[in-house]
């Protein structure tokens, strides 16, 4: 019996592919999201989401703060320095106590709120270490991402791989996921088999991986680390939940591998400089986004040089001249 033709919109679908296979065939972002600012939106018996009103092209509808637990709560990523959002968190948790303030990474849309919430509750700040670039800056290099880093962040306890935080009805296992930043952490909620994925894996968009804050090699290794785990539902730092997360993470990995192949193809074709590569690879993208795109290409060439596939004079940079090794 021949299977009925699949009515999906993917040109290379082999037939009645299951949904999980579809997202591998073509990476599909899900931008459906209703922020409901100021409200705690219940996502499961143990998890509620509160979105901060800091919408932007990089933060989508704003940063998601998660409330985890029943009576003693962990608050994950209290968001930017916004007293209004902190007051909303306090109102939503009135009558319960906040035992831990958990930080996934030190970008200014995620961690400054932790200090405000600590001032109100006295709860310890735990999770990500201090902000730092993934590698030292090269001579004369300016960090274009400097303004985004929360250099004031200090954790009362830094968490590392496998460390578990316990509350009355919940436990959060730390999963180190560097790549977007060097100190990025995800947290698995053991009771649910779900994972708070921060900005490492999001449904609405791919993660920004840009040197010197982030590195492609770390990012890819962190995708592999998640693929070695079982969680299928992720709660990201921006936008809606990721369902069928394993297939989605596999598709994210394929997307980056395809991008790396495109960069290699440009170097092979004789494009020695990143701006030339960006012009071709991102020809269908608004030129206003070519700056961030150049950093993404730099992340790929850094990795290619480290692996001995490509070479350049001096350290890899936006200006360097690249050729195949
Ligand atoms: Zn973010």
Silhouette: elongated
- Estimate percent helicity: 25-40%
What is the beta-strand fraction?
A: 15-25%
Kindly name the structural category: alpha/beta
Order of helices and strands: HEEEEHEHEEEEEEHEHHHEE
Any idea what the CATH superfamily of the largest domain is called? Ribonuclease Z/Hydroxyacylglutathione hydrolase-like
CA gyration radius, whole angstroms: 21 Å
- Overall mean pLDDT score? 91
Associated small molecules: zinc ion
Distance, first to last CA = 51 Å
> What CATH architecture label of the largest domain applies?
4-Layer Sandwich
What is the class of the largest domain in the CATH system? Alpha Beta
The major pleated sheet works out as:
7 strands, mixed
| Total domain units | 2
> What's the β-strand tally?
14
Provide structural commentary.
The chain is α/β, with parallel strands linked by helices and 325 residues long. It has two domains: 23-254, 4-Layer Sandwich (Metallo-beta-lactamase, Chain A), CATH 3.60.15; 264-324, no CATH class. The protein is 27% helix and 18% strand. The chain has helices at residues 19-25, 83-92, 112-121, 216-227, 245-268, 274-281, 290-306, and strands at 41-42, 47-51, 64-68, 72-76, 97-103, 125-127, 157-158, 164-166, 171-176, 185-189, 194-198, 233-236, 310-312, 322-324. The strands form three sheets. The chain has a seven-stranded mixed sheet with strand order 1-2-3-4-5-6-7, covered by helices on one side. A five-stranded mixed sheet has the order 8-9-10-11-12. Strand 1 and strand 2 form a beta hairpin. It starts with 18 loop residues before the first helix and ends with a strand. Residues 9-25 have low confidence and may be disordered. Zinc ion (ZN) binds at residues 59, 63, 107, 109-110, 199, 237-238.
């Amino acid at each position: 019996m021949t299977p009925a033709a699949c009515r999906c919109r993917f040109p290379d679908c082999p037939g009645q592919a299951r949904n999980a296979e579809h997202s591998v065939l073509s990476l599909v972002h899900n931008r459906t999201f209703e922020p409901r600012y100021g409200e705690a939106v219940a996502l499961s018996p143990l998890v509620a989401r509160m979105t901060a009103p800091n919408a932007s092209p990089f933060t989508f509808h704003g940063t998601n703060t998660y409330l985890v637990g029943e009576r003693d709560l962990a608050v994950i990523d209290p968001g930017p320095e916004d007293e209004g959002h902190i007051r909303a968190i306090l109102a939503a948790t009135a009558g319960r106590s906040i035992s831990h303030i958990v930080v996934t990474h030190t970008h200014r849309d995620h961690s400054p709120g932790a200090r405000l919430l600590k001032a109100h509750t006295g709860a310890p700040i735990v999770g990500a270490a201090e902000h730092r670039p993934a590698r030292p800056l090269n001579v004369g290099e300016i960090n274009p991402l400097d303004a985004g880093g929360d250099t004031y962040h200090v954790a009362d306890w830094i968490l590392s791989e496998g460390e578990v935080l316990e509350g009355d009805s919940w436990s959060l296992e730390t999963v180190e996921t560097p790549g977007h930043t060097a100190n990025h952490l995800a947290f698995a909620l053991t009771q649910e088999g779900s994972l708070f994925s921060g900005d490492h894996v999001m449904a609405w968009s791919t993660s920004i991986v840009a040197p010197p804050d982030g590195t492609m090699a770390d990012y890819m290794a962190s995708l592999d680390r998640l693929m070695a785990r079982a969680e299928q539902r992720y709660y990201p730092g921006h936008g809606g939940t990721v369902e069928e997360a394993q297939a989605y993470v596999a598709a994210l990995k394929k997307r980056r591998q395809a991008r790396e192949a495109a960069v290699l193809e440009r170097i092979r074709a004789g494009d020695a400089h990143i701006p030339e590569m960006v012009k071709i690879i991102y020809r269908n993208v608004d030129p206003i986004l070519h700056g961030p795109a150049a950093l993404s290409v730099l992340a790929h060439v850094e990795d290619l040089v480290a692996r001995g596939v490509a070479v350049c004079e001096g350290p890899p940079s936006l200006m360097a001249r690249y050729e195949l090794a």
